[in-house]
Design a protein that fits this description.
Butyryl-CoA Dehydrogenase, subunit A, domain 3; alpha+beta; Butyryl-CoA Dehydrogenase, subunit A, domain 2; two-stranded antiparallel ribbon; Butyryl-Coa Dehydrogenase, subunit A, domain 1; Diverse_Acyl-CoA_DH; globular; 8-stranded mixed beta sheet; FAD; 626 residues
Length: 626
């Protein structure tokens, strides 16, 4: 079955996307308009992205030195054409209001449509950071900031970044050292927002420099010194600033002057080679900007930035973009896994090797069979299918929750908010780990050829490997899940999630072929709940969080088992299937569900044992003993 058939099944037969058209915001849409968006994105991905996936892997971004000593990034022409086609499709503003040029498209359909680009060429990019940047400004920016910056990003005229990490701080945002000082006595009167001068360095900034758009809008975390001139320690001292690459006036027109933002160099990673990854210097005087105060040194050094929101609330604002990016990375991981799975499936169907084993052993005189006829190859393909299609179901389920949060009743919107809080760490991390395993299995299915560049699966693996660290490592996500999300608001989010799982269990237990799985999920859910309580029994964070990653792994497996059981409930009654639920689809879902419950869900016991025991083996290992 094609990817599009799988997507249609999940969107329409499982999540019933067409019911969203009953909401006022989406009333002008229909199944036909949704399909038209999917058709357009599938075509652009097929024509402008997929043919160049290997090209952008081998022709990495490079720099040339300009006459003024600055570095300019050069990208392949294919990247320019792909970006242009994507921007012209309107997908950058797909979810926005009609009156600012948007489609008012449900996020569920937007996410599904964007998945084609991840499948075709993940590192060529399709505006993830730009859209997230603009969405943050629409939520937290002033009307002028929305008009000048966000709308230019939605149009594709400008692009956006997220500048958090620093060379010395990494994920520890409380330790960032980038500093922002008020720019002159009239700093608060600037129409674009309170004006500051920033100085510092940001590392690992994706799309931090390129020539795809006429301007780049950096969203930068920095600290405003206190009255004593010192930076406030911890995350409470962090503020958020708009720092454009090129300066603009109050009407959003380029002034012709560069801001004091300079590319220091490119990071060359094992994957995602088509995306520029940069070290940026802010305010070091390479492009001095004369202004009211003359910046840090009176000679124009200091990048001009405009405060977003209130001082000290930068991280709260940035989390809007960070959570959006985390779900985006989860989808990227899912689609890289899916690309490898489809490549492995095609190879297995066409590669002859070996002969069937019968009671008399192998008969070398018989013709070879295709490798998909071997049980172990089917095992590897089933594993990939269960990881990738299960992850896709989770990503789309989360996207559906976003629509519920935006357009549901106040009660439903609040439930969706809490469910997203709990599910976001899993939606980011689970595909990053297990779709990587899917990519590894795709290489294995290809045998020796899988390790060559004659086939795409080795590139998929390299691209995928980065997603385990993109937007926060497993450790960061695990601490978020066990340390905050399952306990927030008295554990209400976890209770809501358990209620939804139990509803699926109740439906499944009525189906004879699913009853065993339903009981297994009920037991697994009970084990997660017990481990959560046991971890926090002493209220000692050191003990509770010592095994946060095994907890995340177990929790994620339970969530994915729930996804598969819910899908199985949709296809189990053979006499009531229809739409995209063909006989092959039914068998595919039921076998993948069976695989996941028999081979994967059984892994959670040892993970949860160390969580419940508050095992400190890792935490107490002496450094000198390594």
């Amino acid at each position: 079955m094609s990817y599009r058939q799988t997507l249609d099944f999940l969107l329409h037969d499982w999540l019933h996307a067409d019911t969203l058209t009953q909401r006022q915001r989406y009333a002008e849409h229909s199944r036909e308009t949704f399909d038209a968006v999917l058709d357009t994105c599938e075509r652009i991905a097929r024509e402008k992205y997929a043919p160049f996936n290997r090209l952008i892997d081998t022709e990495e971004p490079r720099t040339v030195t300009e006459a003024d000593g600055s570095l300019r990034v050069v990208l392949p022409q294919a990247t320019h054409e792909a970006h242009r086609a994507y921007a012209e499709s309107g997908m950058l503003s797909a979810a926005q209001d009609h009156d600012i040029g948007g489609m008012q498209l449900p996020y569920l359909v937007e996410a599904a449509a964007n998945s084609f680009f991840g499948l075709a060429s993940i590192s060529m990019g399709s505006g993830l950071l730009t859209v997230g940047n603009a969405n943050l400004l629409m939520m937290h920016g002033t009307e002028k900031q929305k008009q000048v910056f966000a709308l230019k990003e939605f149009s594709g005229q400008w692009s956006g970044t997220m500048c958090l990490s620093e060379p010395q701080a990494g994920s520890s945002l409380s330790d960032i050292a980038t500093k922002a000082i008020p720019d002159g006595a009239d700093f608060a009167q600037d129409p674009l927002g309170p004006r500051y001068r920033l100085r510092g360095n940001k590392m690992w900034i994706s799309a931090g420099e390129h020539d795809l758009t006429e301007n780049i809008v950096h969203l930068v975390l920095a600290k405003i010194p206190g009255p004593d001139g010192k930076l406030v320690p911890g995350v409470k001292g962090i503020s958020l600033f708009i720092v454009p690459k090129k300066l603009v006036n109050a009407d959003g027109e380029l002034t012709g002057q560069r801001n004091d933002v300079a590319l220091a160099g490119l990071n060359h990673k094992c994957g995602w080679r088509g995306t520029t990854n940069t070290l940026l210097n802010f305010g070091e005087g390479q492009f001095p900007v004369n202004g009211a105060s003359g910046g840090y040194d009176g000679n124009g050094a200091g990048a001009v930035g405009y405060l977003v929101g209130q001082p000290g609330e930068g991280l709260r604002c940035m989390f809007h973009m960070m959570n959006e990016a985390r779900i985006g990375i989860g989808m990227a991981a899912t689609m890289l896994g899916m690309a490898g799975y489809h490549a492995a499936l095609d190879y297995a169907k066409n590669r002859p090797q070996g002969r069937p084993i019968t009671g008399a052993g192998k008969d070398a005189s018989q013709p070879q069979i295709r490798i998909i006829e071997h049980a172990d190859v089917k095992r590897m393909l089933l594993a990939q299918k269960s990881y990738c299609e299960g992850s896709l179901a989770l990503q789309l389920y989360c996207a559906r929750l976003v629509d519920e949060q935006r357009t549901g009743t106040p009660e439903d919107a609040d439930e969706a908010r809490l469910l997203l809080e709990v599910l976001t760490p899993i939606a980011k991390s689970w595909p990053s780990e297990w779709c990587l395993e899917a990519n590894s299995l795709a290489i294995q299915v290809h045998g020796g050829y899988g390790y060559t560049r004659d086939f795409p699966v080795e590139q998929y693996w390299r691209d995928q490997r980065l997603n385990m660290i993109h937007e926060g490592t497993h450790g960061v996500q695990a601490l978020d899940l066990l340390g905050r999300k399952v306990r927030m608001e008295g554990g209400r989010g976890l209770t809501l999630l358990a209620a939804r799982m139990n509803a699926t269990i109740e439906r499944a237990i009525q189906q004879p072929e699913l009853a065993e799985h339903a009981n297994a999920l009920a037991q697994a859910l009970q084990q997660v709940g017990a481990a959560t309580k046991a971890a926090w029994a002493t209220e000692n964070p050191t003990e509770a969080l010592a095994n946060a990653v095994p907890y995340l792994q177990a929790f994620g497996h339970v969530v994915l088992a729930w996804m598969w059981l819910d899908l199985a409930c949709r296809v189990a009654p053979a006499d009531t299937t229809g739409g995209a639920v063909t006989a092959d689809r039914r068998m595919g879902v039921l076998h993948a569900t069976c695989y996941f419950f028999h081979y994967e869900l059984t892994k959670i016991k040892p993970w949860l044992q160390v969580v419940a025991a508050r095992d400190l083996t890792c935490a107490t290992m002496p450094e000198a003993a390594f």
